[in-house]
Every structure is written in C-alpha cells, then in structure tokens.
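Protein data:
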Amino acid sequence: MASKGNARKIKIAIAGACGRMGQRLIALVAASSDLELVAVFEKKGFKDLKATVASFLPGADNVLVTDNAEEAINKCDILIDFTFPEVTLANLGHVKKYGKKAVIGTTGLSAEQKSVVEKAAKECAVVFSPNMSVGVNLLFKLSGMVASILHEDYDIEIVEAHHKHKKDAPSGTAARLAELVAEGRNVSLAKKGVYGRKGITGERERGSIGVHAIRGGDVVGEHTVSFLADGERVELVHKASSRDAFAKGALVAARYLKNKQRGIYSMQDVLGLS
C-alpha cells in the first residue's frame, strides 16, 4: 500500500490564468503539497500568454500554458473557474465531455445559466458558490439565522463594496445574502427586494429587503447585513483584505470533490454548514 507521502496529487487546471484571481490561485496551488498544477489557460488570442504566465509562475516547465480550454481541461482532475458566465458554461461542457470535476466561483449567472450548471452536475461533480471564503459562508449561515429570529420590526439592508473593475452588481455574494434573509423571513425576494433608491421613494415598505452596491478603488470585497429597529441595530460584517480568502476556499472545495462522482455542492456543504 502506498504511503501517505506517495499519495497521488489532485491535478488542477485554472481558467482565467492572468486575471487577479487566476494569479492567486496559481500561486497557492503551486505551493500546495497535495495539489498539482497541470494546466492554466486564457481566452483565445491572449497576447504573449506564455511570457505573461512565466512572469508570475517561474520554473513551471511541467505546466501546460494555453489558450485551448479543451486541451487544458482534458489534462486535469479538477477545473477551478473564476471567469465569466459564458466562459464558465463553455468550460463546463468540456468538464462533462472528459469526465472531470469543477469548482466554480464565477458570479453574475442568470437563472437560466444556473440551471445549465445544475443540469451538468447530474453528470459530473461541481462545487458552485458565489463566494468561496470560509468567513463569508459563515456570514451566509448567520444572516439567514438572524433574519428568522428578528421580526419585521427590524428592517434589513444589505450593502456591498467592490473594486472599480467588477462588472456585475449586486455582487453574487450580496444576491445570495438577500436570498437567505428572504428565506429566513419566509418571504418572496422577488416581491420584497429593493435594489438601490433614487428620488421620492416614499416611506420604507415594512418587510422590504434593501440591496445596494458600491464600486471604487481596489476594494477586494465588503458585505454588511444590517437589521435596523427603533432604538437598536444589529450588523453582520465581512471584509476581505486579500483574494487569498476566496482562493484558499476554492482549494478546500477542490479537495472536497476528490471522492465525489457527480452532484452540485455549495460551500455550505464543503464546510459542513448546510
């Protein structure tokens, strides 16, 4: 029987290699003792791709650097994808084709796109979460719990802040927080959700759930869920100072998938919070 030290490493491919998250994922996987970085890839036609990757991943002679997603995914056990909805769905097609697994941290997917992920998970194992951070997933758990305890005299407002380059709003994390507090209150988010305010909006509707987005600078990610009543306020806050919080969570998710064959899992499942 092979010793623990000779155990086979999990082969990882990373999409969006040259993005901010991609670079941190590459660094952490490369430094891991139980994960093996076998392929990194970018969009077709990425200029000077190999030179760019070599600038932050020196000495990676055994790593495939390519703009061919299918080739990269075929080489791995698990794909880690923090890209864009259309790219993620295309990559997931290759994951299914070659019997691989995927950790998906991409945000901004429509309901229809999410259903594509769910359908794919009937054939392969997928961890799909709007936020891979351990701390944020605890925030998810607590927000739903507090919403179920504090009655409608407590108004709920969710505020998120991210860097100026983020393309979707509200963030996937804020959207999930809104879903969870609505579930905690046993109300319809479609009916109670209020996304930003402008003009003469009138008095705040009792039981509504406010969601607001701030964009600027290099903010990695901040989320505040406030429960406001006359005379007091309860706040649940998470602030990320580094993308490592999300990248490390993605590696935890990849290890969780090692012995999974198919099905869709959240970080709540990965962390035992479900």
Summary: The CA atoms of residues 156 and 227 lie 5 Å apart. The chain has a mean pLDDT of 94.
